[in-house]
Design goal:
mainly alpha; 12 helices
Length: 257
């Protein structure tokens, strides 16, 4: 019997120690619990607020970018045409300004980017760069294309193409060529061919006819099956600029002079 009492004593002492510990540190323990609970609630509220901001930004963005789509029909293609061969495509500078600056109660792309920051749609800087490109504000186009950051190779290539077209208009042919070559390295064959085509035009502007010929030849040898037929109804096709054989023949004629 004595042994049982002796064995029970340490357990009783342990309970007393624990009770004493909680008594002496109750304020600290309750404080920690309160901090944890407040942190969880604050985190939840922050998440809800962030989601609300993202939704708001997305709605404003959709309204703003609709003006860009109206101003530049089929933007995904037009943004990649060589600027010097782009003909009338229904560009409307007022709609481009509405996209950038907003109209009525609608927020423009610039205000959305400023207000919502990281919570704005990922493509907003690319859309702003495209607006500036088509408005002829090429330095702004380059600046916003540089701000665009994504892991999506297709969208990265598109931003590089917008940047390259703006650099072509600024006479920065070395930089434009580098932008187009970088764009070509990001995407599949069809789009790569378009970017290489623009890089060849930049090479020609630099007086590097051999370089231009090499790029045109690369397009013919690797991508010509689909490339020449991609834009049969485009304004660019009226000048036959997409026909690779004609480009190769033209450069070879220049080299022979």
């Amino acid at each position: 019997m004595a042994n049982k009492i002796e064995k029970a004593a340490p357990a009783a002492e342990t309970k007393e120690v624990r009770a004493d510990f909680f008594t002496r540190n109750s304020k600290l323990i309750y404080g920690i619990l309160i901090v944890i609970i407040v942190g969880v609630i604050a985190g939840f509220l922050y998440y809800r607020h962030a989601e609300k901001m993202r939704t708001e930004a997305a709605n404003h963005y959709a309204a703003a970018v609709a003006h860009l789509d109206l101003a530049v029909p089929h933007l995904s293609g037009n943004a990649q045409y060589p600027m010097q061969f782009r003909q009338a495509t229904g560009l409307d500078s007022l709609e481009l300004r509405n996209a950038l600056d907003g109209v009525g109660d609608e927020m423009g792309l610039l205000a959305i980017a400023d207000k919502y920051g990281r919570r704005a749609p990922e493509a907003i800087n690319l859309s702003i760069a495209s607006c500036y490109l088509h408005l002829g504000e090429y330095e702004n186009a380059v600046s916003y294309a540089d701000k665009y950051d994504t892991e999506d190779p297709l969208l990265t290539s598109r931003a590089l193409s917008v940047k390259g077209n703006a650099q072509m208009q600024l006479g920065q042919f070395d930089a434009a060529k580098a932008s187009f070559l970088a764009a070509a390295g990001k995407v599949d064959e069809d789009l790569a061919a378009e970017y290489l085509f623009n890089a060849a035009l930049a090479s020609e502007q630099l007086g590097d006819l051999e370089g231009a010929l090499g790029l045109f030849t690369k397009i013919r040898d690797r991508y010509s099956n689909n490339f020449d037929q991609r834009y049969p109804t485009s304004a660019a096709a009226e000048y036959n600029v997409w026909n690779i054989e004609s480009q190769i023949a033209r450069i070879e004629t220049l080299l022979a002079k």
